[in-house]
Structure formats: C-alpha cells, structure tokens
Amino acid sequence: MVQNNFSDLTAANLLEYKRQWARLLKRTPRNSEILEAYKSLSKTRGKGLNQEILTSLTTRKVRSLSGVTPFAVMTKPFTCPGLCTFCPLELNMPKSYLSDEPAGQRAQAVDFDPYLQVKSRLDQLEATGHHTQKIELIVIGGTFSAYPESYKKEFFLGMLNAINDKKFKDLVEAQVYNETAERRIVGISIETRPDWVDEKEIILLRFLGVTKLQVGVQALDGKILKRVKRGHSIRPIARATTMLRNAGFKICYHYMPNLPGSNPKKDVEMARMMYQDKRFKPDFVKIYPTQVIPGTALHREWERGEFETYDDEAMIKVLKKIKLLTPKYCRIDRLVRDISKKWVAGGTIKTNMRQIIGEELKAEGKECKCIRCREVKQLEYGVKPDYKEHSYETVGGVEKLLTFERDNKLYSLLRLRLPNSRQKMVFDELKGAAIIREIHTFGVAKKIKNKKLKIKNDKTTQHRGLGKQLLLKAEGIAQRSKYKKIAVISAIGTKNYYRKLGFDLDGLYMTKYI
Questions:
Q1: Which residues of 246-262 are buried (b: 16+ CB within 10 A; e: fewer)?
Q2: Are 220 and 273 spatial neighbours (Cβ–Cβ below 8 Å)?
Q3: At what angle do helices 31-44 and 114-127 cross, to 10 degrees?
Q4: Residue 404 CB partners (closer than 8 Å, separation 6+)
Q5: At what angle do helices 312-325 and 264-276 cross, to 10 degrees?
Q6: What are the structural domains, with CATH classification, of the chain?
Q7: What is the pLDDT of residue 36?
Q8: How many CA atoms lie within 13 A of 178 on its CB side?
Q9: Which residues pair with 252 in a beta bridge?
Q10: Which of 190, 173, 198, 326 is nearest to 252 (CA)?
Q11: Does position 28 have pLDDT exceeding 70, yes or no?
Q12: Tens of pLDDT along 297-345?
C-alpha cells in the first residue's frame, strides 16, 4: 500500500507524488491504492477530504457523473416469449445478451447470483473512487415480465441484501431497512416487452420498487415489426406507454435503425414519430443500430442477400439526424450496443459511435439537445442556474419538465405528470393526484448528507437544494391545476427525503395533500 504524508497533496501536484511513489515501489501506483491510503490517513488525522483530489483519483469518472452510481445486474437464462429474427441466443445466456459483454461476463462468473453480482460490483466501484451511497440498479436479461413471480422476488431480495450488507429473508423487511441504510437505492429499472405490460405486472413492479421501464419498441411500423417477427403491433406500445406514465414510471424505449423493411429515411421518420406523436414521447431512449449476429434468422437472411446493413457513413448520417431531432425532455442513454466485433457479421462495429457523432456535429456547428448532452457533469457550481418550465402533450395528460439550467448546462430536473380526469388509474392512491415521475440533480455523485463528513473545496452541484426548489414549484403547479394531492413514485431509498418534505407513505407511493 502506498504511504505518504499527504500534508501538501493537491490535485495539481498529484502527478509528481505518483512519480515519487513509483520510484519507491518500482512501479506506478494505481489510483485505487492512492485513494485508499489518502482516505485512511485523512481519517486517522481527523482531516477533511479534498473534493478535487477525490475527483482526480476516481477511475472512469463518467460512471457517476449523472449524480448517481448506476450498474447492471443480469437475470439467469430463461425462456423468452419472442421469436425476433435479429435476437442472438447464446447457450447459457439470457436471450439477446452475449457472454463477453461486460455485464454478461460478471454475471456468468457468479452463476447469475444477484447477491454476488452486486457485492462484487460495489467492491470494484469503491476501489476506483466512486461513491456507492446512491445506487441505481439496472436489471437486464431479456423480458423480465416473463420470469416467474417467485424468481423476480428472490432476485430483488438478493440485490437488496448485497446493498444492505445484511441477509434478510423477507423482501419488505429489506426494503424498509434500505430507507435508512448507508447505501440506498435511488432507482431500479427492468427490461420488458410492451405486450407484457398489464395491470398485474405494473402492481408487482411497483411492489418490487421499480421506478423505470426499458421497453423493447424496436420500430414504430407495423410491417417492419411483422417482418422481424416481433409478435406485436404499434398498439401495445402506445397502450403500455400511457399505462406506465399514469403509474408514474419513467419510460425508456429501445429503438433499432436499419431493421429489415426500413431505410435511412424511414428510420428518421420513425424517430420523429417517436418524439412528436403524443402516444409515445419516451423520457429516455437507447438507440441500437441493427447488427447481424451469426446463428440468428436475420443472419440467414443476410447470407441469402435478402437484407443489407448500412455502411458506417450512412449509419452516422441517420444517427446524427435522430440526435438533432431529440427533444429536450428526452435523454439518449445509449447509442450502440456494447457487443464485441467478433460477433458482428454485418452492421457497425464502432462502439464509440456517440463520440464520433458528437465530434462531427460540433464541427458542423450543431448540437444535440438531449438531456445527457446537457448534463452539468463535472462543471463547478458557480452562479445560480435559471428556472425553466417546458410542457408537452401526451395521451391522457400533460407532461411538465421543470429544470434549473444555465448556459445550456442542465443542473437539475423534475418530471411532473398532470393526468386528465378521464384516465383509468391502476392505483387508488394516484386518483386525483398530480404525479412526480422523476427528480434528478446532475453532477458528481455525492454521499448522502452526513454532518460528520468533511469535504473541503466542494464545488459540486449536488446537495444545493435544487431538487427541493423544483418540488415546491411542482406543488404550486399542481395546486393551480386543481389537483387535491401530489404523488411521487419514490425509490426505496428516497422515501425519507420525501417524508422530510411533508409526504407520507400511501400504498406504494409517497403522497401529500395540497
């Protein structure tokens, strides 16, 4: 372990310290080693931690630059209800996933055990300088809704036990403990098909603590969906979207340009429809250009010459147009699958597509307006950002996006749904309520407030009261719009935050009469 005085260590002279230690150790010390020693000695001497040094020592900072620390946990291989021609099916892997994808490798190494997956990921993140007090779990592995209910509950209990560092036998007990635990769950997402979203599934997902759904849309064209044997039309996509919105969930669409039956112009038009048709308008989108994987029905079509993939130049043009169409209310989470090129017989193998497109748009004097491209990230908290309010129509109600932003940098946002009175609500507690679907402050993920914790030179954006201010704005809008109460789809570990702001647990939501 690296040892040193640290008395005059700064972010500016960190490199020189590394050189000194390298001469002593006969090797370059890892950031994780320096970080561990720095924290240990600072604690021993009762000195505060310097935020600039912590940031400098953090490996792959992008992992926690959106204000939380997200990571994926994979379910075990299971029968998928779909027959999609493009979907890979590797032995001993959930359908659509491959064993050398990062999350797949981690899952296979522990036989898909949820407890061990989470435990190893937490250890790795902490060793590389990331805070793990605000965890966003991303459950992946095909159609989650098709798994048996008993397995779903068992899987979630395993994840919670790892985060709580305790072995509960009851899921509800584990959830209650997490409300005040050292590490708290601030969001959970699952992947499913739109035709598997119904009232029963929505109630179960809320019981499990899910706050976001990734929905396999793939295309907004009935002929294309039929050709790839997706097994549903556009109607279930629209129906699922409205039901999920009325239950407060955040919604992420998976969209695939270059599917059989499409073309560059149609890809862009379907994206325009996705963003502008009030039946859709997702909060997030993952854009996965079609890749031909050996062993699939699509690969056999491709070999027979019945299907052709775009070259990279054509695909980049399509993706640039889609990015420029993306509205301010939507976040592009991903722009290409993280699939090793050894699996790809046709289609792009560029995993840095987002970077390439970003550089080309910048050179053209254009910019993407999506949430991810505007997040404040490591920008210091300087002048107070401005409050802005954006409204858009959806089936069954109006969506309000409330933000704090400055110079095209997004500091904090709140999604507020104002459902109309004719909407059928799955949950009684949401009847007559305006619904807060998301509150999120961006920037470097910080620990939950602790008076004993001393961080010097802290200029990060979190814990500045921005979320609380947006919540008060949302209450005012709901009150003026004649709603009798306001509800929040709270994550398991954020319930206490809302309790402090006057909300009470009401069924599976936090609500407050206004």
A1: bbbbbbbbbbbbbbbeb
A2: yes
A3: 80
A4: 385, 386, 387, 388, 410, 411, 412, 413, 466, 469, 470
A5: 20
A6: 14-57 (no CATH), 60-210 (no CATH), 216-374 (3.30.750.200), 386-513 (3.40.630.30)
A7: 63
A8: 33
A9: 214, 284
A10: 190
A11: no
A12: 999 999 999 999 999 999 999 999 999 999 999 999 999 998 889 999 9
- C-alpha 79 chain-centroid distance: 25
Q: How far is CA 147 from CA 54, 141, 151, in A?
A: 41, 10, 7
Q: Is the dihedral of CA 194, 75, 201, 122 positive or negative?
A: negative
Question: Which residues, at least 6 apart from 100, have a Cβ–Cβ distance to it below 8 Å?
Answer: 340, 342, 343
Amino acid identity, residue 51?
Answer: Q
**DSSP type of residue 510:** E
Contacts (Cβ under 8 Å, ≥6 apart) of 493: 134, 135, 178, 179, 181, 183, 184, 185, 186
492 DSSP assignment: G
Q: How far is CA 383 from CA 62, 102, 300, 412, 439, in A?
A: 24, 39, 58, 14, 21
Q: What percent of the chain has pLDDT over 90?
A: 74
Residue 84: pLDDT over 60? yes
The single-letter DSSP state of residue 326 is -
Strand order in the sheet with 397-406: 386-394, 397-406, 409-419, 433-441, 485-488, 509-513, 504-506
Q: Print burial letters for 193-215: b (CB count within 10 Å at least 16), e (below 16).
A: bbbbbeeebbeebbbbbbbbbbb
Compute the distance between CA of residue 450 and CA of residue 253 in angstroms, rounded to an integer.
37
Amino acid at residue number 196: W
- The residues, any chain, with a CB within 8 Å of residue 321's CB and separated by 6 or more, are 268, 271
pTM of the model: 0.86
Q: What is the DSSP letter of 29?
A: P
CA angle 117, 118, 122 (to 5 degrees): 120
Please give the span between the terminal C-alpha atoms of the chain, in angstroms, as a whole number: 56
